[in-house]
Amino acid sequence: MSSATNAMPGAMESGGAAPVAISWGRQFYWSVLREIWENRSVYLAPLIVAGLFLAGFILNVLSVRHRTHGMWPFNPAHQHDLLASRYEIAAALIMGTVLIVGVFYSLDALYGERRDRSILFWKSLPVSDLTVVLAKFTIPIVVLPLVAFVITVATQFIMLVLSSVLLAGSGVDIARLWAEASFIHVAVIVFYHLLTVHGLWYAPLYAWLFLVSAWAPRAPFMWAFLPPFVICGVEKMAFDTSHFLSFLLYRLAGPDAGTAMTSGSHADFMSQLIPVHFFAVPALWEGVAVAAVFIAAAARLRRYRGPI
Amino acid sequence: MACIEARGLRKSFGTTVALDGIDLRIEEGRVLGLIGPNGAGKTTALNAVLGLTPYQGELKVLGRDPWNERDVLMRDVCFIADVAILPRWLRVSQALDFVAGVHPRFDRAKAEGFLAKTNIGFDTKVKQLSKGMVVQLHLAMVMAIDARLLVLDEPTLGLDILYRKQFYDSLLNDYFDGSRTIVVTTHQVEEVQNVLTDLMFINRGRIVLNCSMDEFESRYVEVTVRPERVAEARALRPIYERQALGRVILLFDRIDRKQLTEFGEVRTPSIADLFVAMMSGHNDVAVGAKA
């Protein structure tokens, strides 16, 4: 190959002709943005779910007020429940929504562009495959958790304001309500949960979906879910063990189910929130390493892939 | 420096050989028409040039290895495949924003200028545009990129005559400046005949003709032979024979034009005529005579 002699003048000429480089960060930024343009469900789905939840919440508070006929305050534990348990439902609903959006987004991320042939357009632009894949991977592990955080906290704040308004004059101690709601505490817990579980712990799961999405000749959903299912069955048959299944369940449940969501008294959460506990779990870093390998493989595969 | 240089370029899919050891050199500033029947290897060759497919052999595009340096190469190379590749969900304004965001050589004002001449609204989504308008949009974006090589793979497939004519007109008037290289494949050969500076026929993964249009015009002559001179004309070994309206038409390669004038009406063949002649079997008069 006479690559050295040929490449040099070419590189110099293109370098001198015009401002050539666009920073990696800028290309990455626009690549993430274009994913959000294409997949508006990233923010629309949790917004709609939050809206529906708030409508349900209003009905619920009004019925509580109606039933109690202003006979407040009832017992304090009940008053605590008025918001705390509903906070959890709100958070669980929104997080579940972004989880579902994330799964379907990931399965389509590198498959959809091949199916609709638009990969030819994206590949005609000077953006590397790795940049594209990383930008796409940012959606499930950074953008969706952030969206979930903002919408969850906003929803919980609206719940607090709504209940204050709806219960005003009913005898409920509004100041007590705000104190019990421990708004900041809950926000911190939600943030911590999203960062650790959705962002890091689930990274290898999303990366697996990306790999399948980059590879699958068709039906990525089937290729993503059939192999684990079959492995579990065959393992049970051959060795009468369920190691693979418990491995998957551990990965799905999170390293420490106790820190997962709000429950019990608020004082407990803060003590469990010491990140060292979570970051000291070796399985976390094994998962992150596996995710890195899957993503690198997906980027490599995209280079070979054309429209289907 | 050559724009595209290949030595022994090979590519096979299983047992099917798509490119069978191609050697070629395309200088900068040329407009090359790559013509071949379906399955001849045109698209495979272009995909190799664009870094979309791995290959065997040596290939340099603007001095770079396309397979390993696609992203860098695409700063200097633009590409329009057939009409379907712009994502349908994309808005025109988003398309401009995105390309401006990632492409160092994109001049947004220029693209907006080209679009202003069309009926394409900036708020429209690609899926709301007609086929012709999608191509207009893509061309407007590509022409606003200061690239050195433009690759067009069947760019006007499925467009009506007006859009097709407009496509090549704007390409020549607003884009081609003599220093850029354009490679175009098409089945609508007659439309590009006046656009090309170079011509390449490819069949079964091999180059069967590679010449400049000047050479094409001086080399090939088509004669509508007067009936009484047919036998004499055939003796000069035409490369192809066909009949139209009862007249015998012979196609000659490298035969003196003056000599042929006495047999009948002489003209430069169309690319399509030569293409049919060459794809029907080389130097085989019998094939043509059957027609």
The gist of it:
With 308 residues, chain A is an all-alpha fold. Helices cover 80% and strands 0% of the residues of chain A.
Shape of chain A: globular
Shape verdict of chain B: globular
Which structural class best describes the helix and strand composition of chain A? Answer: mainly alpha
Strand order of the largest sheet of chain B: 5-6-7-3-8-9
- The Rg value of chain A, from CA coordinates, equals 24 Å
Instruction: Write down the secondary-structure element order of chain B.
Output: EEEHEHEHHHEHEHEEHEHEEHEHH
Mind explaining what this structure looks like?
By secondary structure, chain A is mostly helical. Chain A has one domain (27-304). Chain A contains 15 helices and no strands. Chain A has helices at residues 3-17, 24-38, 41-68, 76-109, 112-115, 119-123, 129-167, 174-181, 183-201, 203-215, 220-239, 243-253, 266-272, 275-279, 282-304. In chain A, helix 3 (41-68) runs antiparallel to helix 4, helix 7 runs antiparallel to helix 9 (183-201) and helix 7 crosses helix 15. The model of chain A is unreliable at 1-18 and 257-267 (pLDDT under 50). Chain B is α/β, with parallel strands linked by helices and 291 residues long. Chain B folds into 2 domains: 2-204, P-loop containing nucleotide triphosphate hydrolases (Rossmann fold); 218-290, no CATH class. Helices cover 33% and strands 29% of the residues of chain B. Chain B has 12 helices and 13 strands. In chain B, the strands form 3 sheets. In chain B, strands 5-6-7-3-8-9 form a 6-stranded mixed beta sheet, sandwiched between helices. A 4-stranded antiparallel beta sheet of chain B has the order 11-12-10-13. In chain B, helix 4 (108-116) runs antiparallel to helix 5. Chain B is globular, with a radius of gyration of 21 Å. Chain B starts with a strand and ends with a helix. Residues 282-291 of chain B have low confidence and may be disordered. Classes of the chains: A mainly alpha (308), B alpha/beta (291). At the A-B interface, helix 1, helix 2 and helix 6 of A face helix 2, strand 5 and helix 3 of B.
